[in-house]
Amino acid sequence: MNFQLSSDQIALRDGLIALLEGRFSLETIRAREGQASVVDRTLWEQLAETGVFSILVPESLGGLGLGMTDAVIATEALGHALLPGPVIGTMLAAGTIAGAAEGSTLVGLLASNGQGPLPAVIELPGDCDGYLVLPDPRDTASPVGYAPRGAFTADTPTRSLDPLHPVGRLHLPLPTGDVELHERADVLRRRALLLGSGFEVGLATFALEHAVAYAKERHQFGRPIGSFQAIKHLLADELARLELARAALHYAAVITDEPEVAAIDGEVSGLSVTQMQWRATAGAKLLCDQAALSSTKTAVQVYGGMGYTWEVPIHLALKRARVHSTLLGSTDQMAELVATLAS
Question: Topology of 186-342 in CATH?
């Protein structure tokens, strides 16, 4: 399978990166660290004008009508910019929830494990206007509901691991939502996992680029530290890990867009189309979790003592990677799912 990007996909990626560098500079984003509201709604709506939130919306509904492959390319660019805000929920809600595609309605995610929310916190309570409520993952046929922010209560946003991703404790019971999305819960979960994995690839790329740049500039013993094998090998390993994760992600996105490919591959493994799509999605999430966490940790190590300071932005990517690695399931749960479908 050829994973080279098409000219249109390259234009999508480069256009988004150029916009993000101009409107969402690192300085602009970091100015909102630790605040209850981390989203500048004016800039968010300007981002929406590019069509990024309506990538998956059919053209008949005013969207771009593109597929998951294009969507993960977009979330990779957003992750590379460390963009704060409910990116995944808003992209999934676009086309169904009024204002999501236009950036005027910010939509987060709430997930249940059949016994309550998982975890018992609400993301970005100071910014989200509503939440997609996903039922028990074992309940694959139930629809996904939408609950406006006023349908439930949560504590005031408190300091979280990621200063650009505040959370509040959700008061039970978990709302079910009064608007149903058209797609089943398992389809939305897979899409959410893939979009989050794309964001993680962006975080890993951000960390690796910063580490490589620093290794070229920082001198020790009269030489750039990047000339030493210990540093070279660390960075080379992270690049290999990142490219493997990106390839797995694009494969999962392709067979999501083209079920006939999943059917052909499933014949070899004795799996149905849905099982193949889940195996590919869980495998991609697993590898992207590992790439994001490993690359950010390595970047801190390459920076040495400076890597642990607040001024160096690598810690922001590391903390965001921690947040995304728990999105709709842990790394261990993804590994268990892959093992189950591989046996």
Answer: Butyryl-CoA Dehydrogenase, subunit A; domain 3 (1.20.140)
Closest CA to 334 of 276, 293, 290, 282: 282
pLDDT tens digits along 230-283: 999 999 999 999 999 999 999 999 999 999 999 999 898 899 999 999 999 999
Q: What is the pLDDT of residue 163?
A: 92
Which residues have C-beta within 8 Å of that of residue 233, sequence separation ≥ 6?
none
Report the helix count and the strand count for the chain, using DSSP H and E: 11, 8
First to last CA, the chain: 24
Q: Residue 184's pLDDT is what? A: 77
- CA–CA gap between residue 212 and residue 231 (Å, rounded): 9
Nearest Cα residue to 192 out of 113, 283, 90: 90
Classify 154 as helix, strand or coil.
strand
Structure tokens, 210: 């910063």
Question: What is the chain's Cα-based Rg?
Answer: 20
Q: Is the peptide bond before 119 cis (omega within 30 degrees of 0)?
A: yes
Which DSSP string do the residues of 292-339 spell out, in sequence order? HHHHHHHHHHHHGGGGGSSSSTHHHHHHHHHHHTTTTS-HHHHHHHHH
